Every structure is written in C-alpha cells, then in structure tokens.
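Researcher: Go.
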Amino acid sequence: MLIDKTGDLGPTYLGIPRQAMLSEVFTDGVWRMRRRGRRVFGEVYDAIEGATAPAIDAGRDFVLWRHGDDDFKNHFSTQKTWDQIRVRKPEVPWRSLGWFTQGVPRQSFIVWLAFRDRLSTGVRMRQWGITQGCMFCGEPNEDRDHLFFACPFTYTLWLKLTSQLLGNSVSPAWSTTVTALLRSRRDKLDGILLKLVFQTAIYFVWRERNSRRHQGVRVDGGTLARRIDRFIRHRILSLKYTGSHKLAGLLRRWFEVYTG
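Model: Structure:
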C-alpha cells in the first residue's frame, strides 16, 4: 500500500523496510519513521499519524474489502473492486443494446465492437492495403453500416426476424435501427426480444461473413435465419423463466412474432 502511494523510493525515504511488520514500525506508542521523509511525503505522514494507533488490547487484526467511499465489508466483490479501480466514463446511449441480463457475453462483445466501429470490415482493412468487398452482395465498400443491415442479403434476414416486432420501423439504416430499438414505449417482452434478436443477428452475420471469407463455406439466408431462431429459443430456455416469473411468457411471445 505504501509503495502504491509513494513509489519504489518510499520505503527508503520513510525508513521502513519493505517486509517490515507493523509491530516493527510502531513501538512504545511512537511511529518509527525517518524525519527527512516528511519533506517529501508530508501527506502520508499526516495520514499515518492521524490514524488510530494500533494496540495489542484492541484484538486481532482483520481484513476488510473496500466496496465504496467509507464502505468496507468482510467479503470480496469483483464488481465492487472493479468499480474502485476503473476509470468511470459517461454511459453511452446504446449500452442497453449490448449489455443486458438476457444477452450472451460473446455476442455482446461483437455488438460492442460494432457500435465502436472496430470490426475488421473492408473499409478498415483498406487502410492496411487489403481490398475486400461484401461477401454477401459484392458491394466494394464493405463497412459496418452496410453489413448491418444495408446489404440486401442481411436486410432480408433482418426483415424476416423483426417484421412482427418492429412493424413499419424496420429499416436497413444502422442509425435508424438503433433509434427504433432504443424507443422506450414498448412492451417489456418485445423489448427484450428485439435486443436479443439484434445481438444474435449481428453475431451470426459477422460469423457467416468470416466463414465465407476465410473458409469458403456459406449458407443461404433461410438456413441462417433458422440458426438464429434456434439459438434464440435455446437462450430463452436456458434462462428458465417459469411459473409466475414476469418474463415467463418470453418464449411464447417469440413463437408469436417469428413464424419462420
């Protein structure tokens, strides 16, 4: 902890060996630290000397984990620890489309890359001197917006998956699609299904694109739609929403809005 605050030279300035025990640093009611260290680490000295002095009759030492400002617990939390060490930034508007309870982590990662426009599409590859067009329709300028879902192939797939959920809001334009998905006035089940379909469609389109490009293996749009449908059904079943759970009708609703 001291090294975190003072750097590698901290123990030298303070006169405290790296492996010293507390009992070696605090003896006879006095902190044994070099005086000259105060000139460099005045705040550290003030914090140490202002803290409650250790005492044998205070009982055994115990470890507490920091969960927040002035909030310490006797158990460890990965989430709380991560919150303490990470740099917080404003939430992006599309956060709920990438990260939600019913989502699949590997798919969320691909969606995150898509939103940040970091997928290795043709436009990005061209910067490295590699020319590649769309593997679905031959469009020479393959970019994020084209793949999702301006390409005739992927738009047909998207339309098939979401026509009952989005109605007239189905669009081949990336920005229009995102705006429609973020619309708050929507039934809860439909909202979850749309996010799941969006995430799964992007993942499967990207995987199919890579399969065609790197392995020369391809499937038609109907087969891809059936694979997405099957994946969504299996994902919903894995959530085990049964009985009186408020989302128990999620699978039934999917059967209603997607007929294949």
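Model: The chain has two domains: 2-85, 95-257.
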